[in-house]
Amino acid sequence: MTIPEHLDTRRGIIPWFARNSVAANLLMIVILCVGIGSALNIQRTLQPDFEINIIRITVPYPGATPEEVEDGVILKIEEALQDIDAIESIESTADESLATISADIYKDYDILAVMDEIKSAVDGIVSFPEQAERPIVKRLEFQKHTVNVELYGDLDERSLKSLGEQVKQEMLQDPDIAFVQINGARDFEISIEIPEHRLLEYQLTLSDVADAIRRSSLDLPGGTIKTSNGNISLRTQGQARQQQEFERLVVKSFPDGTRLTLADIATINDGFEEVDGFAYFDGKPSLGLQVFSVGSQDLIRVAEAVSRYVENKREQLPEGVEIAQFADISYYLKGRMSMMLDNLSMGALLVFVVLSLFLNIKLAFWVMVGLPICFLGTFALMPMVDISLNMLSLFGFILVLGIVVDDAIIIGESAYAEAEKSGHSVDTVIKGALRVATPATFGVLTTIMAFSPTLFASGTFAPFPESVGWVVILCLAFSLVESKWILPAHLAHSSPGTGPIWQKLDRIPAKSNAILSNFVENTYRPFIKRAIAQRYITGASFTAMLIVTVGLVAGGVVHFVMIPEVPGDFVQANLEMVEGTPEEETRRAFEHMDSSLRKVNEAYSAAHANDDNRALISHVAAFGRGGRHVTFMAELTKNDMRDIDGAEIARRWREEIGDIPGAKVLAVSIADQQMGPSISLKISSPHPEDLTAAASQVENALRRYEGVYDIRNGASALRDEIVLEILPEAETLGLSSAALGQQIRDAFYGAEAQRVQRGNDEVKVMVRYPRDERAAVSDLQNMFIRSAEGAFVPLSNVAKITIQPAYTTMTRIDGERSISVTAQADKSRVEPDKVTSSILKNLLPGLQQRYPGLDIKLSGESEEVGTLMVSLLVGFALALFGIYGLLAIPLRSYLQPLIIMGVIPFGIIGAVFGHIVTDLSFSMMSFFGVIALSGVVVNDSLIMVDFINSAIDRGERLIDAVVDSGCQRFRAILLTSLTTFFGLLPMLMEDSLQAQFVIPMAVSLGFGIIFATVITLILIPCLYIVLEDVKVLFGSKSARELEPALSE
């Protein structure tokens, strides 16, 4: 659509605002005030809230093996859930003593209603094992970790836990702290240990003792007595809660009146549950408290409240006990915010300088005013679309920084050009604005359309692109308002300066424009004429560059990763010892790893003794579990305080550790910032016996890839299991399998007598053998079993004992057994997606032939990112139709939009070149930069085509219209490119840790915009003539009309 020269400049909304500066200024003030108010109160979080549509059922089954958990609990729950239509998939895990069933719910269903339906189905199961506890059904919710508070020092476990509870309650008194969770603390337990010979002496079983405790230790209400003075309650009080009270409980009474108490036969330990584990912080026993921000809480405000508490509490702690903050997430959020503000300020300054070189300084100033208007306007609306200020939305602000002023530059440059021809006046400003208003508006709308699929992404990671998309779309929407309604009023009523200072300042753009005009007339004009004359060679050259670029990515010269691996401030180490490793040996391995890290730190400090005693390590948290697992998390000193990155620290630590005898898995790496391992494959089959062999082949295939490490095969998670087979002799003694199993369970796991409430703690009371009578297989072989007649016989007389391997964990997916094979990947050396694609393409078919029914699926990060990318790609494919429509409307053509859409893929050439120069992998962040780049290309190209159409409508020859339009648009296109590049230049030069996540985006847009300038100024004119060639080919235009273009 073109703007007639004689258009009435007094009608329409743009002229109205241009002539009514009060309305424009009031609109600006309202946007700024509302935006500032919203910015001061907006919720700040590390990342957007995840919508997790998963309902989890957990069933504790104390003492049960994974196979018993599967048979007794999981299979029954899966059967009960199979008729619920709202469930998309079910994943079940059987661990020792615990069943976990996760039901993934379709998004179209009301998850609370589905949870009620699932709860009813589970509650209807009446055949759970007697020892299984009540199922817990709850919806998984995204927890926003804020900071850890560590209590550590020379304090016994009970005192440390008591202090932890005190600290937790004190922190919760602060109105800014709502949720605190204690980690690394064992539950209290009263263990009543009775030697077998004492039980035999008094003809008792552990079950008899547990029953006696239940009868004697209880408080029982007895009703009420109605008297004339009122009702009086009756209550029998006999509940034991402390060790001395349990010791007095009567177990057995004899005819002569004597009584056998627990103290006579048992040792009572009022301590902690028997769970192998430990927790250390900076080398001392510790207890961790994890603080979360919940609901609409502001993460930074929560972290500041915790910091205040820690500082005040430090002086009140017992001697030898310390308190520290660990893994403070607010540091990274504040760093990202500071980085955005710094880069925004510096980028805005550079943009202002660039504009001042070619336009007058007042125009440059008013164009820059558009930045705070757009950003604060976006802040004003972010709460309405449920977007917080997080690392992803901040990424959106940084992304849009380079393009948000493009619309204002186009309007301002057009008004400036009109003023150069006709002098400055309100009418010339309006005329210049109207001249490009329609194509500029539709150009912005096409960019909005390009980002619209981010609002409809699917998968767990969908809030990531949604946060980016909303910020970009809102900023661009406000750029339309500012450039069409507010900017023209400012330009119209901003008269050129007349003083000597202004005259000197005006000489700068005059000289710059003179140089630029000389370049355009003497270099660009003849070049574009030759390019048009050789348009097919020109087009082929661009196409060849695009093919080479795609080849560089496809061939792996430029690595492609979904989520870039950025340096971190944490290094983690994971150790898993082989099955059956004594806890003492695991402890020795832990101590060796801890001392190795200290040696690395001390060596670095010694080498930098003259540099303020620099150190690598700030804090170290370590914990062990299960007797053979150890995890370290080392928080490094901040990036600007050391000259080596986390990857090098991890390498030195691993080298110092060396080999650990008995280690099954030993991995040291930068702490993974994503959700799980880089590579995660789930192997499922209706034939469980096929899984182990298939998993081994997948593991071997992964080991062949350089850069793939920490490979974990679920099929190798085996340990010895003792299986008892009842003998025929047992039946003659009246012993059933259930009775036999119960007596063994009571002896080795323990018989739960009761649970006692002590303050906030529910304490189990367990009756069992002493630890030294249940420490070896021989203890089991030598134990006595009571028959139905009351006689005690050796276990070996009634049961056969065999030892066989068994899984420590069993997983099921949609009713089939499954095994996971996971691995981490060094993304600088290998692309995880190519690894998984190769396995699915090359290995899976052979496995399926060998093992019918077997299947391998992506899981974890790979699955979620894959789901996200598929939804985005489908959305972008659909968005192309919307972009076509938005181009066709202003151009009033079905074919000309194809010219503009045809150049969109060429924008990637500069982006890929930038990644080669900066040695970065192409990632999802780079992809967002390419989308923004496409918006700039479309915007400039649309206006270029509109100018050509306008010139042709005025009667100019085709070749003159194309060449002249290119020359007229040269300055505006150059300005949008330069301002975008210089707006991102501070980001491109950033070396801070916070910037590493967003630099790929800046590289795509910053380097891509340079090539985009060439596309718009050279390729668009050539393609316009090619389109005319096509019209001649199909007879809609005569060849005579193209002769001037062909001959020049």
Structural notes for this entry:
The chain is an alpha+beta fold and 1048 residues long. The protein folds into four domains: 13-46 and 333-562 and 866-1047, Up-down Bundle (Multidrug efflux transporter AcrB transmembrane fold), CATH 1.20.1640.10; 52-141, Alpha-Beta Plaits; 195-220 and 237-265 and 719-807, Multidrug efflux transporter AcrB TolC docking domain, DN and DC subdomains; 567-672, Multidrug efflux transporter AcrB pore domain (Alpha-Beta Plaits, 2-Layer Sandwich), CATH 3.30.70. The protein is 53% helix and 20% strand. The protein contains 33 helices and 30 strands. The strands form seven sheets. Strands 1, 2, 3, 4, 20, 21, 28, 29 and 30 form a nine-stranded antiparallel sheet that branches. Strands 5, 6, 13, 14, 15, 16, 17, 18 and 19 form a nine-stranded antiparallel sheet that branches. It has a four-stranded mixed sheet with strand order 12-7-24-23. Helix 14 (406-422) runs parallel beside helix 16 (463-492). The two termini are 28 Å apart. The model has no long low-confidence stretch (mean pLDDT 87).
Q: Do you know the CATH topology of the largest domain?
A: Multidrug efflux transporter AcrB transmembrane fold
CATH superfamily of the largest domain: Multidrug efflux transporter AcrB transmembrane domain
Q: What is the 3D shape?
A: elongated
Poorly predicted runs are none
Number of strands: 30
Reported for the largest beta sheet, the result is: 9 strands, antiparallel
Structural class: alpha+beta
